[in-house]
Predict the 3D structure of the following.
Amino acid sequence: MLDPNAALDRLDHAIARAKALGADAADGVYFGDMSSSVHVRLGELEDIGRSEAEEIGIRVFIGQRSANVSSSDLSAAALAAAAERAVAMAREAPEDRYAGLAPAERLTKGPWPTLDIDDGTDIPVEALRARALAAEDAARAVEGVSNSQGASASTGRAVYALATSHGFAGAYSGSSYGVSASIIAGSGDAMQRDYAYHSARHDADLETPETVGRLAGERAVSRLSPAKLATGAMPVVFDPRVAGSLLGHFAGAISGSAITRGTSFLKDSLGQEIFPRGLSIVDDPLRVRGLRSRPFDGEGLPTSRTRLVDSGRLTGWLLDSASARQLGSSPSGHASRGVSGPPGVSTSNLSMEAGTLSRSALIADIRRGVLVTELIGQGVNVVTGDYSRGAAGFLIEDGEITGAVAEITVAGNLKSMFLNLTPADDLVFRYAVNAPTLRIEGMTVAGA
């Protein structure tokens, strides 16, 4: 895997070659990663994985025509050939009046913010094995656990570099560490499975394997003897481990591509109150040690902390340069670029700000409802906002979380769900997308 400076050097050569062949403009992106993982089951080593990959993508423009070519061969000859193919393809491509590099005057020049996302620690395979075993041992020690689907530990490092023909060059690296366990409780037809995992940029921030394993075991045991529910309308409470999925649906609905195509249920909602007043949703690419922190976006534009929803109101779209041109707007700094195609958009460290009620206070007046801890399937229509997903979790009765429930479906419409949502005060930054416990009124819960 190349270091950031070497990656930028390769991109410079590829872009120069494309320009020499007649390209009006060009950009290039490098992505390299290497990772190691160990998986154990029932105290025995099952698998050791080691992967290393790197690839460069070259995009060229001839007038309003463009083409993209990628190569995993990073030799000078291979990159020159890739540039030649890209130029030839661009000459034959259809015109796109919205395509092009990001506005030159908007490019970030650095210095990049200090994000502290690469701690440089390499964990030996034996240490990973010990972590995986410790996680599984802790899970299997929980009373009621009967079997294991295994536990894993991993470490990795990645390098990302981007360069353009109109003046941008930047690169950064990031590390990652993880531990997980998937555990079975009960026996026969009464078996239940659950899991736990944790990921961090710095090894020192990673939860202990014992903590992760014990949580997986306790979760599996708590799901034993699930009850069936009769169909009805009731409050649904989303546990933080699944609440972030609602933010994912929101982000998809405000992406530039969905708005330009008119295929979003929020396409006419800019500036409107789509969440309760006082509620805010923040995207923060500059979070120190954040799982998706980045100093610049996929087009070389600066990134910044953004309130996508401010006191309930939708403030803007997630726009790359092409979708911004189509909408007569400006790119938002959310462009995301892979090696195989043009930029799209993505959020970084996305979160819903915490509310003021504790989790117990949030459910205290629920006579009968459901706490959802697992969601199954897709069942979301981003065009209409219709929402229907399989779920499992726990019954809420008279303000208390009681027995497990399974094989249910929770349904509603995201527009209504967003407006009837109340967050608790238990926000923790554990994932790339984070939300506190969320209560939504008036959902339909379908049981057996």
About this structure: The mean pLDDT is 96. The radius of gyration is 24 Å.
